[in-house]
Every structure is written in C-alpha cells, then in structure tokens.
Amino acid sequence: MLVLPTSGDLAEAGFGETVARHLSGRVDRVIGPMERRQLERRHGFDLSDQLDEAAVARETACAHVVDARMLETDSVYAVVWTGAVVGVELVLRRAGTDRILWQGRHMARRSDGGLPLSPLSALWNAAEAGLMANDSDLHPSLLDDALRRIVATLPDFRVSDSAKDSTGALARRYGFN
Fold first, then answer.
1. In this predicted structure, which of 63-67, 70-74, 119-123 has the lowest mean pLDDT?
2. What is the pTM of this model?
3. DSSP character for 31?
4. Which of 114, 115, 173, 176 is buried deepest, with most CB atoms within 10 A?
5. CB neighbour class for 47 (10 Å; exposed up to 12, middle 13-18, buried from 19)
C-alpha cells in the first residue's frame, strides 16, 4: 500500500509518516513518504496523475494507494478554557483508478480548563488551559488518536501462514499478498 503525498498544516510535521506507521499494523507492506519520494525522484513520477500512480503500482508491485487528508486543525484559547480539534480522512483505493475500497474519517478533540466559579477555580482553570494551549505535543497526539480510531475500522489485510485463516483469504482477495 502506497501512502500518497499529503497536504495540510501537519504535512511537514510527519503526517504521512504517521499514517504509514498506523497502516503498517493492518497491511504487510506500506510504502511511506520517504520511499515514495525516492521513487518519484528516481523515475520522475507525478503521483497526482493516475497513469503515474499505475506505473508506481507496477514498479513496486503494490496495487493500492491511500489518500490521507486533514479535514480540520483548530485550536481555541479563551484564558480559562482551551480546546483543540484534528480531523483526518483516509481513502484506500486501487492505484490508477477512482475505485474506493475503504474509507474512514474521525475528528479527535481535547479540551481543558472550565467555568470559573470562584477566584481560585479561575486561576486553576487558567493554568490548566494555558498548559494545554502551550503543549507542543497536542496536535501530534490528536493526530495519533484520530488515526488509531480510523485504522481500527480497516480490516486486517496481513497475509497469514494458515490457509484456513479468513483474514489471509481477505488479503488475497483484495490483492494484498
């Protein structure tokens, strides 16, 4: 499975690598951004073109691609309360076609702080909200949460050694062997 180039706020912060890491728990072979960029440079592929997608599929013996897209990335800070949202959508399809085999989306949310009912709670809520608003790991953590929820709905396409295993049959049926 090839992870296509991503766009959005977190694309430079390793969004594609994170997608590839989560997918590798469900698929035997995942071609992440680093290997994909090497293929693009070596062969001059333009993966926005379906013909080049099909050529990459032949080159790598990988018939499936994943489009990963950020739906929303937002943060709100209001002194005594803060909230953050990260939305992600994944679409699995055959390379070089528009045939969708599976898709999933999720919005991960987190907030901290609260309603100040006293001067002490106002200070406490402001401190909690400030700590969360300044947390540099907040958006990557929300991204991991969203991807974990999405990938949990993806069938396990790893090929099993046992011929009786229905999961292995599913993987062979969709060409993940």
1. 70-74
2. 0.78
3. B
4. 176
5. middle
Task: Note the residue count of the chain.
Answer: 177
Identity of the amino acid at 132: M
Mean of all residue pLDDT scores within the chain: 83
Long-range contact list for 137-142, CB < 8 A, 24+ apart?
138/75, 138/84, 138/110, 139/9, 139/10, 139/13, 139/73, 139/75, 139/84, 139/86, 140/10, 140/13, 140/14, 140/18, 141/110, 142/84, 142/85, 142/86, 142/108, 142/109, 142/110
Q: What is the mean pLDDT of residues 44-66?
A: 82
DSSP 160: P
Q: For 55-59, 69-73, 108-112, 159-163, which range has the lowest pLDDT when averaged over its residues?
A: 159-163
SS3 call for 93: strand
